[in-house]
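Progress note, sequence design subtask.
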């Protein structure tokens, strides 16, 4: 006959169990938020990504989606490990937390280094923007089969209140501008009050003279700054989760023996 012993826990173990469960719920919600940001980036900022002729920014968004998914799964494993009081699952959960912690620290530090222009990527970012954005505007705007690019350029110029890549003068070399019969000097989206055919007059009172490159670069670097702060902040919060996991694991082990 097999005699089963009921599990008896000390007050400390019970407190650790519920604290870790609460942490896992918050961690799971944080993963959902990161996943939502990644999906939002792909859905809402895909226009800007298409202007750069680069997979770097879309890849970054998909990395956010992947990270959010991993965090959600890890949070679920943590909840199961805590409720089932499984030391094996607690060990797996700790390893996953530690791996995510290292990745977030590395990503956060890289984002800060990029923001401070201490990393070669900043030069590559500036070079890519200046090469690709100008070429895209001059050769693809209002061209057959390039409706998405045209919409993205118009959205960029109106949202950032800019005109052209470096300045409004860049539009003088556009394929669309030099087409016979086109009497516009700049697209209507360059106008401070966009209306049909307002791009016929390039007076500073009518259009934005500043280029979009500097503003787009500033926007991207500011996002890196925020990403770095959030990544490092969440990473240090995970230290609490790892400590709680270790304490609960040790308490369960001591109670068994």
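Output:
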């Amino acid at each position: 006959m097999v005699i089963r012993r009921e599990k008896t826990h000390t007050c400390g173990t019970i407190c650790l169990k519920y604290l870790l469960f609460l942490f896992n719920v918050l961690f799971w919600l944080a993963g959902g938020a990161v996943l939502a940001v990644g999906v939002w980036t792909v859905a809402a900022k895909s226009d800007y990504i298409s202007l750069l002729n680069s997979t770097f920014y879309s890849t970054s968004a998909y990395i956010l989606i992947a990270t959010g998914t991993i965090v959600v799964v890890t949070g679920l494993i943590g909840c199961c490990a805590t409720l089932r009081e499984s030391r094996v699952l607690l060990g797996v959960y700790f390893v996953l937390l530690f791996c995510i912690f290292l990745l977030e620290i590395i990503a956060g530090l890289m984002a800060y280094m990029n923001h401070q222009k201490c990393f070669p990527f900043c030069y590559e970012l500036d070079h890519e923007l200046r090469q690709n954005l100008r070429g895209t505007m001059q050769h693809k705007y209002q061209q057959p089969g390039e409706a998405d690019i045209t919409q993205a350029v118009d959205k960029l110029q109106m949202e950032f209140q800019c005109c052209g890549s470096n300045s409004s003068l860049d539009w003088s070399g556009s394929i669309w501008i030099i087409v016979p019969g086109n009497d516009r000097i700049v697209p209507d989206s360059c106008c401070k009050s966009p209306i049909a055919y307002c791009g016929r007059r390039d007076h500073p009172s009518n259009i934005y003279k500043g280029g979009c490159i500097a503003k787009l670069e500033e926007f991207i670097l500011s996002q890196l700054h925020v990403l770095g702060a959030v990544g490092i902040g969440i990473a240090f919060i995970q230290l609490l989760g790892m400590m709680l996991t270790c304490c609960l694991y040790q308490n369960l082990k001591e109670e068994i023996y």
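The radius of gyration is 26 Å. Work on this subtask will continue into the next period as scheduled.
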